[in-house]
Amino acid sequence: MRKRLVRAAAPAAALLLIAGCAGDDAATVTRGSLSGRLAGSGATFPEPLFERWMSHYGTHVETGAAIDYRPVGSGGGIEQFLAGTVDFGSSERYLRQRELAVAADVRGCDAVQFPVVFGAVAIVLNDEALDGMVLTAEVLARIYDGQITRWNDPAVAALNPDLDLPERRIVPVHRSDGSGTTYVFTRYLTTEVPFWGERYAEGTDIDWHETAVGGDGNAGVAGAVRDSAGGLGYVNQSHADEAGLATARVVNEDGTPVAPTLEATTAASAEAEIPDNFQFAIDDIGGAGYPITGANWIFAYTCGYDGDTAALLRDFWTWALNDATADRFAADLGYAPMSRSLKTRVTEEIRHINADG
Question: Where is the signal peptide (predicted)?
Fold first, then answer.
């Protein structure tokens, strides 16, 4: 069922705002004054962007800072964050109430979670001749369920009357690790296709059909698709671009086939209704929006960091959200930056990091 939601994200010029210590009104940080190391882990979905952000920040913004991010998948990022082995975690899904309860019990204070960027999950194809082909949620679900096994299946042909579809067998590729990209993809299928919700549901780890092939991380899925004749998989848009793979257009809620472009991702993210606790999903996308769109969340704590680590955590994520160069990096890699109003809300949330000491 189609629903129009509150406008939440759109292209916007960035406002340079540097947050200082939590609870300090209008506090600023003197550039060059921060030093230390941060360790984070989690989603592979934002890895290309995080790598660019962290390299630039450590080279040009705070040269005494070093940030190590390990792309272990969203499931691993949540696990390592809750285990306290990293300073921050990252995932394409937010922490749920049971996980927030675990975090509070382990750390002795509340967790902080906030979105930092939006991105598309692209459907990638092995065959360049199929670039731009049209697929629907129903057809994708049936491919991953083993019901549609060849490219010239009548259901695929009906969507692509102008394509000469091969008889070749389809090789569906999925993430073999705990993955937020999987969560975004399977939530989309669950929302749109009744049988998918009954048989598989949504999640970071799915009990896939026996015909599907696993790949580790976005790069592993892209590689498996590239190396498999008839391969089809789902990856972050930047990984699709980096791998040079053909992509499909996916039919959105208004019946429009849409490619996974920055503009289409931004249009989709603009329909997300984002509550005060930042727990949301991007569903039922129409208009010019690409329908398989998700966000990336960062997790931190309201206590337990030393002063230098806390200051660096707050400053880096505030810089990433509000600096014009950081926004340009996001756009170059196909990620949609958040609107100014949402950035303001998230920046205030970042100030809660280590607020309880």
Answer: 1-26
pLDDT for 106-144, tens place per residue? 999 999 999 999 999 999 999 999 999 999 999 999 999
Distance, CA of 195 to CA of 88 (rounded, Å)? 36
Q: What is the pLDDT of residues 215-255, one digit of tens each?
A: 999 999 999 999 999 999 999 998 899 899 999 999 999 99
Q: Between 3.40.190.10, 3.40.50.300, 3.40.50.2300, 3.50.50.60, what CATH number should domain 120-269 receive?
A: 3.40.190.10
- The matching CATH number, chosen from 3.30.830.10, 3.30.360.10, 3.40.190.10, 3.90.1310.10, for 35-119+294-350 is 3.40.190.10
Look at residue 14 and tell me whether its pLDDT is greater than 80.
no
**Where on the phi/psi map is residue 235: left (φ > 0), alpha (ψ -120 to 50), or beta?**
beta
Given a contact cutoff of 8 angstroms between Cβ atoms, the answer to whether 88 and 43 are in contact is no
- CA–CA separation, 330 and 74 (whole Å): 20
* Whether the predicted pLDDT of 19 surpasses 60: no
* Domain locations in the chain as residue ranges: 35-119+294-350, 120-269
In degrees rounded to 5, what are phi and psi of residue 74? -60, -40
Residue 80 to residue 94: CA distance in whole angstroms: 15
Assess contact for 183 and 74: CB atoms under 8 A. Answer: yes
Q: Angle of helix 47-56 relative to helix 324-332, nearest 10 degrees?
A: 150
Task: Compute the distance between CA of residue 144 and CA of residue 157 in angstroms, rounded to an integer.
Answer: 17
Q: What is the C-alpha separation between 172 and 224, in angstroms, rounded?
A: 10
